[in-house]
Queue: 4 jobs
Job 1
Amino acid sequence: MSIEIKLTKKEKKLVKSYARLHAVTVEQAFKRALFELIEDEYDAAVADLAHDEFVASGEEAIPIDEVWKELDA
């Protein structure tokens, strides 16, 4: 699959600089950024869903200090 992205000269310079800094191609830099964004948004959506399910369950949260005590025991 091929995608064309139009950039200003300033944007192109920034992207090339970023790619050079990280020793990757411009294509790799864009792919990395895109997939990190997708992964972050997916993780946030899953976390929101899990939180909503927890709230709907009516369970009570355990204070973090109690969790740490149990883990140290």
Job 2
Amino acid sequence: MIGWSDFENFTLDKKIQVLYEHGSFIMAIRYYNYKINLYLLGRHYIEVFINHKMASIEKILPLDTTHTRMKFYSDQIKLPHELL
């Protein structure tokens, strides 16, 4: 399994490849100018920010459980209690 510290240091292209090959897609939300895909990689939830107007992935970040976006996720799926 790929360690979190290794994943964080990958290039954007390598992160995309790893998520495609080893991650599990959970769900997608719309948030301002982004479509955000939520993935599970090992025990880590990861957000992929897609600028749908430009059809490009702009950033890949760990799920910020303190952000107001959590409401969009928790309204649709049941996340583990340790994330809430």
Job 3
Amino acid sequence: MGRINVELPDELEKELRFKTVERFGGKKGDLSKAVEEAVKIWIVKEK
């Protein structure tokens, strides 16, 4: 499994974390799950 480190503007990070908790509940690994889903959606959209 690969690892990517990214920097996000503070407000975007805050929104991502809030929406992740809202959708997945805030368990360990949920942030990775949310980012993975977002990347998959972006890749499909760009095809």
Job 4
Amino acid sequence: MSAKSRLKTYKTLLCLFVVAMGLPLFAQSDGVLSSKPRYAEAKFDKLAHDFGEIQKGEEAIAVFMLINQGAAPLVVENITASCGCTIAHWDQAPLMPQDTTQIKVSYNSNIVGEIKRSLVVKTNDRRQKRIRLTITGSVVSEEE
């Protein structure tokens, strides 16, 4: 084989190699390159709720809206409150991309005084595994 023939074969093999290496980039299911990462992304409408002044025994429920802005299902793995006077309720099914759900936080308003409580929401969001929510306010008795 002549040097010219070997060079032509080498160029052909090099071109095939470059094309073969680039094909996986276009193997996306929708046929285009996606710049959006393929993981869950938790986003709350607010991170704090102020009850203001409420009467002792009055219903005290804060609602936090959670949206999955990612491209994979979002799972709320657990919600831990700073004390037993605060309870969180949420749908434990995975939240599909772009879907919204509510996290309802109930506070026992039979305890007179300032409200300064926090909750830690643990998710499968790779960027922020734990998100802190806070509730504040003041519970007053009828005599005040």
